[in-house]
Amino acid sequence: MKLGVNVREIERYDLVILLMAVALTCFGVVMVYSASSVMATKKFHDGFYFLKRQGVYALMGFGVMTLAMRFDYRKWREYAVPILLGCLALLVLVFIPGIGGAAKGASRWIRLPGFNFQPSELAKIALIMYMAYSLDKKQEKVKFFSTGFAPYMVLLALLLGILLKQHDLGAALTMGIVAIIMLFVAGTRPRYILGMGVLAVPFICYVVMTESYRMRRIKAFLNPWEDPTDTGFQIIQSWLAFGNGGIIGQGLGEGKQKMFYLPEAHTDFILSVTAEELGLIGVIVIAAMFLMLVLRSVRVALMAEDTFGRFLAFGIATLLGIQAFVNMAVVTGLLPTKGLALPFISYGGSSLIVTLFAVGVLLNVSTRMKGAP
Hints:
Strand order of the largest sheet: 1-2-3
Largest sheet: 3 strands, antiparallel
Strand content: under 5%
Number of strands: 3
Helix content: 55-70%
Number of helices: 14
Radius of gyration: 21 Å
Distance between the termini: 26 Å
Oligomer: single chain
């Protein structure tokens, strides 16, 4: 399998998806540098520290995306179960001392030389692949509770239990929503989904109420001005960034909130820095690019030549859309704060590489669309 892709081969793929993914990633590298240079200079005595690392992650991601583009997506059927089992093993490995890494009370990473890998990012794609394989295999059986709903709830309970043990509620909710939407699209009876939703509400309330930091986030969401120097500090600083940016922004690199005012400026809240430096226009352009990416991905799903490809593409489109929407809603104060990166743009190797891999799989599905020109 050759890594190179010539111009004629590129024309086989959905070029809008490819262009959006490349543009968002390159933009992300620029914004990571803008958002992190001051902090990197103070902490590492190298203003380019995060830029260099994100640049390497982007190159690795493009390499993985290119390989996935050229790998027949239909073969993922054969590997769906082993990949899911492998991800379950990796999720458990984070709890083993000497292998797993922890930060801010959360155990989510596996330590590798020069790099911390977050298995939950790969687990999201593994779940989508497995569900696409399983739903394709079951066909009409998905309408029955015992065969088309209960087994997936057991799997979700296992995955979400491990993620909650890692204190990763954001990833748990994301995977749960993606799985439920895929089941709905596959034809699962709405009453099963509604019933599960009703049962999930008290459980989510319990999960939130039993962890003090989650309760603080809820209180900060409801009234950040009650404690503006602690629990409400981050969202208030994010609002200030949006306000300072106005319509056209302060100019690239000219933002002030990244200068130790806005926590997580180069990761979860990088859109706030974008808003301050590029203004409302910049944010609208980014949101429009994500919307275009998701809509084109849904188009690939609708036109896929087989059921497996349809579910696979739709799952990836849903994942990209949910993660982008939730991050944007958090930084604007429409949802409580949670650790969920903005795809392609936030700093982080695991998220970027896995996201570009998913785009590569999606692009391969796009080469076999029914009725495509």
